[in-house]
Amino acid sequence: QVQLEESGGGLAQEGGSLSLSCAASGRTFSTYAMGWFRRAPGKEREFVTAIRWNTGSTYYADSVKGRFTISRDSASNTIYLQMNNLTPADTAVYYCGFHQGYCTGYACAAADNYDSWGKGTQVTVSS
Predict the structure, then answer these.
(1) CA-CA distance, 77 to 97, in Å (whole number)?
(2) pLDDT tens sequence across 56-92
(3) Measured distance CA(37)–CA(109) in Å, rounded
(4) Distance between CA atoms of residues 22 and 96, nearest Å
(5) Span 14-29, mean pLDDT?
(6) What does the DSSP assignment read for the chain?
(7) Which of 48, 60, 62, 85 gets the highest tally of CB atoms within 10 A of its CB?
(8) pLDDT per residue as tens digits for the range 28-42
(9) Average pLDDT over residues 36-52
(10) Do residues 14 and 88 touch, judged by C-beta distance below 8 A?
(11) Cα–Cα distance, 29 to 12 (Å, whole number)
(12) Which whole-number Å values give the CA distances from 127 to 7, 14, 75, 87, 88, in the listed order?
């Protein structure tokens, strides 16, 4: 079982920036992916972005393309989410997820394919 610990988030003004990080610990294999999902008040959890660990391939939801950037640090098994040009629509609890195995495209964006989750961190964007 992989444990995930998120940090970062908080409050930003519209147009501002925030960053999140998620550190994974426990046993992993060479083929896996990590990603970020979010749940806004009264809405379903939605995919934000994911990265395949061995290739570095990234996937983004259309709503965040060009504004958010996911990256990884292999030495520390940590992923980062840089969020720029934030809008109130980005307000949500952001969850880090770990997917053991191969995924690509839609598979990396499907929450049901993820095996472990962090507790979530709040991001609030004021207008």
Answers:
(1) 13
(2) 999 999 999 999 999 999 889 999 999 999 999 999 9
(3) 9
(4) 6
(5) 92
(6) --EEEEEE-EEEETT--EEEEEEEES---SSEEEEEEEE-TTS-EEEEEEEETTT--EEE-TTTTTTEEEEEETTTTEEEEEE-S--GGG-EEEEEEEEES---GGGTT-GGG--EE---EEEEEE-
(7) 48
(8) 777 789 999 999 999
(9) 96
(10) yes
(11) 36
(12) 23, 5, 38, 7, 6
Q: In the prediction, which pLDDT does 104 show?
A: 87
Non-local CB neighbours of 99 within 8 Å, separated by 6+ positions: 32, 33, 34, 35, 50, 108, 113, 114, 115
The answer to whether 114 touches 97, Cβ cutoff 8 Å, is: yes
User: Which amino acid is located at 58 in the chain?
Assistant: T
What are the structure tokens assigned to 114, written together? 């993820």
pLDDT of 71 reads 97
Q: Which amino acid is at 114?
A: Y
